[in-house]
Amino acid sequence: MSDKVGDVCAVCNKAGTRSCKQFKGSRYCSMTCQKEEWPTHKLLCAVFPGFKSSSRPTDEHYRAILFPENDAKPRFIWLHAEWQEEDEYEPKYQSVQKRELADTIRLCHRDTFLMDGSKPNKSIAAITATRSGQYHDWRGPLVAYGMKSLGIDQTRCRDLDMKDFRDVADYFLWYEHKPGPAVQVPTGKVVEGVRINCLGDRMLFDKPQFEAIEVPSGDLIFSEHDMSDIAKPLSKIKKQCFFICLAIRDPKWAGRGLDYNGKNNVGSVMVVRKNKKALAPLHVEALCRYCRYEIRPILAHSIGEYAPDKPLSKEAALAMVCRPTFSILWYKLLDEKRKNKENADAPFPYDVE
Fold first, then answer.
1. Which of 15, 112, 130, 293 can pair with 116 through a Cys bridge, CB separation 3.0 to 4.6 Å?
2. Three-class SS of residue 163?
3. Contacts for 182 with CB less than 8 Å, ≥ 6 apart
4. Phi-psi region of 98 (alpha: psi -120 to 50; beta: other; left: phi over 0)
5. What share of the chain has pLDDT > 70, as a percent?
6. What is the Cα–Cα distance from 160 to 197, expressed in whole angstroms?
């Protein structure tokens, strides 16, 4: 292996004998490795010539990489050298190539991106889509910038280039990666879903308890998800009814207040229909009420909580989880909303096309 990090192959760490025509610093040991990196390299390579040192706005600006949330391609930017230490990831070790970095790369992000309504980051999804597997749910914009040397006492920023982009891309490909089927970049198609905001999100961000959201049709919630136990009998009521999927977006980032399958401190939850038909906040509010005030007492009776009554049999309890009992609650909820002069505009859940 070459003594200099910049002289090794970007893919396999062997001596780099080939280079990219646009950016000579990207080195490869063979055409095979160059082709392997091309799907990621091409996302940024073409714009690099426009960010030469001669175009630097001031001596206090450094070349950084922006990963926008609404664009499938990252881009170089000139970043003024002011920063805050908190809320940053700091890759110092190339976990894919298994080597130390020559200098520090920092990733800046919103510290609440998993619970503040930030949209999935399309430019990072374009990187992770180059290899199969499941990846961290990066949301909102991110910025990568460089610091001279390693350790905790860096005092100077530095420009990032295409070699650094490879290291950052490998970090995204490594972080919380789980082997699995290929993940597609979210398309423009979205599904109308609902976010049940936990108490923390409602208090900190003034969110409603039931919030309408748009979910990319390729989101993993439709293929890799948790399903509540009550969704199964509900799905038998009528196939196009509430056959729902729930996703808990990294509980350690979320607030408190929702109890899901006996777990505390879960945080906010996203709810969609598995068949990708529209789901309205009022639908989910009705379902939550139905589970809590109608089904829960029935299940409690079946395990003997209403002694001295003889507990309902499992079959009898499940038979009461049906369309008529849900419909009764639905219309009660609409009446309550109208009396309180609240929004009651939502189609009957069974009639959604």
1. 112
2. helix
3. 129, 131, 132, 133
4. left
5. 73
6. 38
